Amino acid sequence: MTAIFPTPAADEDQRLLSPDELEAALRDIGARRYHNLHPFHRLLHDGKLNKDQVRAWALNRYYYQAMIPVKDAAVLARMQDAQLRRIWRQRIVDHDGDAPGDGGIERWLKLAEGVGFSRDYVLSTKGILSATKFSVEAYVHFVAEKPLLEAIASSLTEMFSPTIISERVAGMLKNYDFITKDTLAYFEKRLTQAPRDADFALEYVKQHATTPELQRKAMAALTFKCTVLWTQLDALYFAYVAPGMVPPEAWQPGEGLVAEKTTAPAGGKHGPFVGSDVPRLPRGVRLRFDDVREKHVLLAPERTFDLDDNAVAVLKLVDGKRSVGDIAGELAANYAADRSLIEADIGTMLAELAQKRVLER
Ligand SMILES: O=C(O)c1cc(C(=O)O)c2c(n1)C(=O)C(=O)c1cc(C(=O)O)[nH]c1-2
């Protein structure tokens, strides 16, 4: 398909576009190249990745987050107009916060911790793919070296981010039982910050790209930035989806994680359920058959959990009266299996559900 507004090559004649035509041309670049179209994002949002693949995304994306204020400081350093700097510096505050514990980088660390990482491991940036680092650093170099108009134009991918963020948050909450609203708190703030930043940058570019040459350069800068985002996802896909070639030194599943709480001693509030525990569904949580997907799910406020067959068999017997021992006994009879093995298995499974707050004892 030929784009309506293909970015002209450097030696091509181009008439001066009106500001609105320039905006349309920039939006057209996003429609064809923004990272919402990347297969890795499609898998992420549709719940098709496993927990380790989601972890790989969270870990690598941390590098992008951590370098955004470095990038913005490089942009700021090129601005000779105090009024412009006053506006742009807000971006650095948004990411760094005004105090320790505040700001976007901190919220991304919470996201990474939410999927199991130890904070120190993430901060160390060990394990981040070299390709991620190369892409992100290419962005920082770009804004440091190119004229200000191009540096600002390269941030215009943010025009398209609110749509992908809304889709991502809804998709991840619905499709992954280990993702909570708290874990994704990072994105909430971006939904107001990104449009504010993008509106400003777009007006600047429309106003300052006053020749065909400058307009072409602004388009090329946005195209470049789309590739910065796209190649990060290519690298993730190659290493952690297919063919699954993790480069030497990069994160391997299992590394850098905090031990899961379910390994706590038996019988405690967080430990595996034991025979005498009586599990029950908390208020607001229900086992439901989903007619569309033709499978059972656990419905909790604002969240749905997919269940495997074993979990469904157990949860059908959870009624707030039967103990874990009773449930194991019934399953052992139905499936002609060893009762003590079943009891141990379901004790662990129920504890995992309890950790996600969809089961109580
Ligand atoms: O979640 C996303 O898909 C997404 C995309 C982008 C983007 O389009 O560059 C940014 C962000 N998030 C983001 O959180 C962020 O802070 C940010 C800063 C910038 C930038 O170029 O200055 N882009 C983005």
UniProtKB/TrEMBL annotation:
Entry-linked Pfam families: PqqD, TENA_THI-4
Oxidoreductase as UniProt keyword: yes
Span of the signal peptide: none
Enzyme Commission (EC) number: 1.3.3.11
Quaternary state and interactors: Monomer. Interacts with PqqE.
Protein name: Pyrroloquinoline-quinone synthase
Function noted in UniProt: Ring cyclization and eight-electron oxidation of 3a-(2-amino-2-carboxyethyl)-4,5-dioxo-4,5,6,7,8,9-hexahydroquinoline-7,9-dicarboxylic-acid to PQQ.
NCBIfam families: PQQ_PqqD, PQQ_syn_pqqC
Similarity comment: family membership: Belongs to the PqqC family.
Keywords, sorted A to Z: Oxidoreductase, PQQ biosynthesis
Keyword Cytoplasm: no
PANTHER family in UniProt: 4-AMINOBENZOATE SYNTHASE (PTHR40279:SF3), PQQC-LIKE PROTEIN (PTHR40279)
Pathway(s) where this gene product acts: Cofactor biosynthesis; pyrroloquinoline quinone biosynthesis
Organism superkingdom: Bacteria
Class of the enzyme per the UniProt entry, highest EC level: oxidoreductase
InterPro entries in UniProt: Haem_Oase-like_multi-hlx (IPR016084), PqqC (IPR011845), PqqC-like (IPR039068), PQQD (IPR008792), PqqD_bac (IPR022479), PqqD_sf (IPR041881), Thiaminase-2/PQQC (IPR004305)
Domain Thiaminase-2/PQQC: 24-234
Catalytic activity: 6-(2-amino-2-carboxyethyl)-7,8-dioxo-1,2,3,4,7,8-hexahydroquinoline-2,4-dicarboxylate + 3 O2 = pyrroloquinoline quinone + 2 H2O2 + 2 H2O + H(+)
